[in-house]
């Protein structure tokens, strides 16, 4: 699974370069999740998960607080959660998750991004079956053996524990996200470079140089859309 971790790092680095847009996307996601349940993360596991992920992107407290206050108060913005699936250059596969208050606008913008960058939209289910929903953690300061021992002592089964570039990566079942995180926090591991539930490809593909350049333009175009929250793909971006 090592290459998949490289792709997560690439995605996070790209997002870090567009931090104001990322903060705006998190503000919407926090508002939506808080409004759907309780605005208290201890009573709303979905909100707790989003806040933990926001922490890995260093989202400022004032942005989080403002989104929560909006959810508690008179905020009447309504958002739909949408998933689009499609194909990029050379048969690459892409999943796009969005939150929108205008479904027609978002569908049009996503379709246009695909069409202008060598891709095309697919029907629901045409791509997602080739991806696995997975809890992913990245942490530093421990070895893979140490982390695995901690998890085994807590009787927690995970898919894999790897060590790359001084970072330990844990892959677990999605429903084990909070269990894994709390177990690690109980032994003093409270900082994570990544803590999220992702869609990881079952198999990755390597594109020819020209196709990869076009593919990266497509991914950039999708991630720049205001309504798009997350983009997943099956391309090995290399080192």
From TrEMBL:
Chief location category: cytoplasm
A Gene Ontology term for the protein's cellular component: cytosol
Signal peptide (residue range): none
Subcellular location, record wording: Cytoplasm
One Pfam family per UniProt: Transcrip_reg
Residue ranges of domain TACO1/YebC-like N-terminal in the record: 3-73
Keyword hit for Transcription regulation: yes
Top-level lineage group: Bacteria
Domain TACO1/YebC-like second and third residue range list: 79-235
One GO term (biological process): regulation of DNA-templated transcription
Keywords: Cytoplasm, DNA-binding, Transcription, Transcription regulation
Molecular function as annotated in GO: DNA binding
Entry similarity comment: Belongs to the TACO1 family. YeeN subfamily.
Protein name as annotated: Probable transcriptional regulatory protein SAMN05877753_102555
Organism (species): Bacillus oleivorans
